[in-house]
Amino acid sequence: MKYERLTREQFEEMHQEFINFLATQQITVDEWEKIKKDQPGIVEQELDVFSDLVWEGVLNKVNYLEHFSPQQLFLFHFKDADIDLIAIKIENPAVDITTTDGYQWLRKNLNNDDVNIYTSTKPIAEERNTDIFALIKKGAHITKGDLYTYFEKIVVN
């Protein structure tokens, strides 16, 4: 398995897609019931393959990720060949940007000496989706890139 198995809830939400997946393998509902009863190892394999297919589809569409922690914000932009990063570090331990008040403080104090903004670019590895998945597992969230675009304008100017 390349990523991780979907949760029971995710499988329930994707019930029809899973049926279609089984149908592409010419497995009918009756055959699936028999496989579940007689061949639990095959069931595990099919669940893993389907999970990887779903993850691959999601990860292929990712262009932006965000990761917030109390004093840091990491904004990732995945381009064709590179990953651009905008990192914001708050040097004031009293400010927690994961809270509404802390985030408002950041917005109002971007030029404060307690706010450091860094940028970086690195080539995308051979396994782009594996890199994205690893960041998601560490707490990053898929976004449309609005926050990245906002800070990119600040960094460029």
Question: Can you give me a brief rundown of this structure?
Answer:
With 157 residues, the protein is of the alpha+beta class. The chain has seven helices and five strands.
What features would you highlight for this structure?
2 domains; 7 helices; alpha+beta; Histidyl-tRNA synthetase; DUF6495
Strand-helix topology:
Layout: H1 8-13, H2 15-24, H3 29-38, H4 40-60, E1 64-69, E2 72-78, E3 82-90, H5 100-108, E4 115-123, H6 128-137, E5 141-143, H7 146-156
Antiparallel strand pairs: 1-2, 1-5, 2-3, 3-4
How does this model look, in words?
This protein has 157 residues and is of the alpha+beta class. It has two domains: 8-60; 64-156, no CATH class. Helices cover 49% and strands 22% of the residues. It contains seven helices and five strands; from the N terminus they run H-H-H-H-E-E-E-H-E-H-E-H. It has helices spanning 8-13, 15-24, 29-38, 40-60, 100-108, 128-137, 146-156; strands at residues 64-69, 72-78, 82-90, 115-123, 141-143. The protein has a five-stranded antiparallel beta sheet with strand order 4-3-2-1-5, with helices on both faces. The longest helix is centred in the N-terminal third of the chain and has 21 residues, at 40-60. The protein is elongated and about 65 Å long. 10% of the residues are buried. The model has no long low-confidence stretch (mean pLDDT 92).
